[in-house]
């Protein structure tokens, strides 16, 4: 008995001693459950080889990623060191005291200059234009289009198209061309349709879809003073919304009344749609022989076309890496060390090679990047003209209004574009005033 | 029922000595009830009260600010909101259609399998399978099945041309808008999933009806309808009502299924009140105060409806 | 009426010997009804069958239009379910294909390669399945037991405020889970129950109790009090009467309640998602959201759901004798 207690005592002392010497040996990052998170885990293994510090990427399914994160933060949770959060969360993260202010860190280490200006603004800055940064742009993303190259290059199709529309069948540079091509390829009895565009009502898909036309028409969500009346429901915005609906009515694959990235990709994989709208993050599946066996080598990609007034923009996606404020100081330092290492050009190059969409300006311009995949060129172009939805803390309320109205007009076919936009403008105005974003 | 032999320790016929070795009725009462009550109070009281408290504030779980009293403003906003009344109406329609159909079909299924035949155990288990699948998965798969292009629903009904087929979740038939079709599609899935629930409860009740009642009635030349109305239904009524009560409560809370299939769309056609509640409480909004207020309003409605059922249940029990 | 006496029928009247059911026409009708039951069962199972075959289809087959009933089966879905995988880049794909030709790849790796992916390690599925079994099993046992005791007490004794207490028990189920989540989350963090098996078990017991008490009370109410009173007169204690008289006759109710509590706890999604993280997470949150690259992995979801379904079916099938039991009483009933 006495020997046993001595052994136990020794074991306890040993363990206690070991824990005293422990510095953060692990960095835990929370992200959504998808391939880029897997790539980040691989990058993490690289970090472990170099520094001995383990990196663990915890993946939460997209549908519950936001809810879980914010619920945990409501209780000041410390189970994760960093989160790769949506660009729209910046407002909440910053004002809610969840994210660590990274302005000095990013500027002093030069990281702020290593990424493109647009990405730093959209994935890191809050409030917009203030010069304060809360995240390191990690995964750039935006809406783009995939199309059936084989159909576009088929001589018979080209001849028929030229005969009907008077110009060559080619990758559409304007939305008008896109509509023509979509109508041309919509052949209901053959089961082929022009487009598969976003229509999902759950969270933000249909708003992102409409944004692509809105932004390319030159319309905006707000002016410099955050005012919305007359801005959101401007003539151009109404036209853009009407166009989205016309496109949906004329050429959308049936059954895609609640479509997001899964459904639009499935439409391409199943050979039902000729042009498919999706985030670049999901295009690797279309170019892969295993996941798209029938069309992987017949798919091309193009950036969001321009509108009738010469504007060309695309809806922004993507995430930035932020440090959670509730963790201890040395864990915060370990997290900063990781970001500093991650932001190096050689690591970002590897990140891009694996499939992560880097925001590093040099890598984006490099030949290696542009030649790596068939969609990288379109991506690089798109990242120069991306625009975002609101990223203020009340963005979700604004989003719910647009989701409801867009779904009602585009999918259900109720009301008019003008009525929908007017309702949105009115309700946005109310929400913004209540939250104090519009000064009287 | 076999007569019970007198207990060996009994001091002859008569009441057993209840004090001392044996637990008194009072003790049993307490022993049986208190664990349940304690657990329920411990797990539920704090959330219930805290939610109620939050309903009177404008709290947001992720903002850095402490809750601020707004008294009845949240409740006022909700009751004055036309949108929310529309969602309540949609939920009401959904509950009536869904619970109604479940009851009828469930009862019918129970009548079908009540008599033992070869394999009736297996058949009953198989009919219960829809209820055993996770609601989220059911929603996802029915969405796949309802798809007019590659779903089995249209295919099995014979609609092979997608352009001329119903697109239930988009409320369209051959391209024409048919309002309310999406809600009905969701009802179909709900009924498919939960009729077995009603079936099982009704079945348990049916199997308890003594056969000689039917025999006596048949000998007296009572019609099948009479047998059903006067014997079957009254015997099964208590269990049937419990089933309907719980299904109605769940219909008002119904969320997983709809979210998976339509997300509340097209437009607002399938935006049930619980779906909207989720939107306000989570999905980036985290308007914890107003959503708690909404939840309490939903709770009050459920309490009112449940009271009706329970009163009716007690009435029936009183007669039987 | 010779079969009846003042003590009830000498032999229990079953449907088989019921006077009005012994003729050939009634027998034929019975067989016909059995046939309809089979047809209905099959019809209701069609969606489940669809889900079943989806588990064995490739992605393109799932998306085929018109839907394929005959197809070449693959184990892709199960591989996705049980293993983590990543899309193989072009160079890696070529490398893997070379290995495959040289016979150096195992069966599972080859299946993944067919879909353009490579396996990077086992997924969490089996671990989560284990959590599901533990949490569901323990919570179901306790919900039924506690519910049974409470139901008996409420049914047989005059308890002050019975109606109110019963309503309170019912009301614990009325608040939508969404709203209770955040307070529960805060409470659990404080109590250290977050992401612990005990936390989930307690929660499921509490949630199932409302249904368990009400349902079992419904069944026990149907059992005539006279039997227990007879036993008490014969010298049994209340407790013994409970175990020997009431329990056997409530077997159907207990079986039904067990099945329902089991199904609910097994498939519970919302609380499992919010209140667990790594240690105590059950299977439902992960099955429904199996994200492949670029979209939902329908085959993995189908495979996971199918596998997840089977234990519940087995338990229900094992209990079927009790679920369908007929209880016939004598003339005392009524």
Give Rg of chain B in angstroms.
Answer: 26 Å
* Unreliable segments of 5+ consecutive residues of chain B: 1-6, 8-20
CATH superfamily assignment of the largest domain in chain A? Periplasmic binding protein-like II
The fraction of residues assigned to DSSP E strands of chain A is: 5-15%
Report the biggest beta sheet of chain B as strand number plus sense, adding barrel if it closes: 3 strands, antiparallel
Principal-axes geometry of chain A comes out as globular
The overall pLDDT of chain B, averaged over residues, is: 83
Helix content of chain A: 40-55%
By CATH, the architecture of the largest domain in chain A is named 3-Layer(aba) Sandwich
Q: Shape of chain B from CA axes?
A: globular
Helix count of chain A equals 20
Summarize the helix and strand pattern of chain B as letters.
Answer: HHHHHHEEEHHHHHH
DSSP, total strands of chain B = 3
Return the CATH architecture of the domain at 61-115 and 194-319 in chain B: Orthogonal Bundle
Assign the structural class of chain B, choosing from mainly alpha, mainly beta, alpha/beta, alpha+beta, or little secondary structure. mainly alpha
Radius of gyration of chain A from CA coordinates? 24 Å
CATH topology of the domain at 61-115 and 194-319 in chain B: MetI-like fold
**What is the topology, as strand order, of the major beta sheet of chain A?**
2-1-3-10-4
> Can you tell me the number of structural domains of chain A?
2
Q: Mind describing the biggest β-sheet of chain A?
A: 5 strands, mixed
Name the CATH class of the largest domain in chain A. Alpha Beta
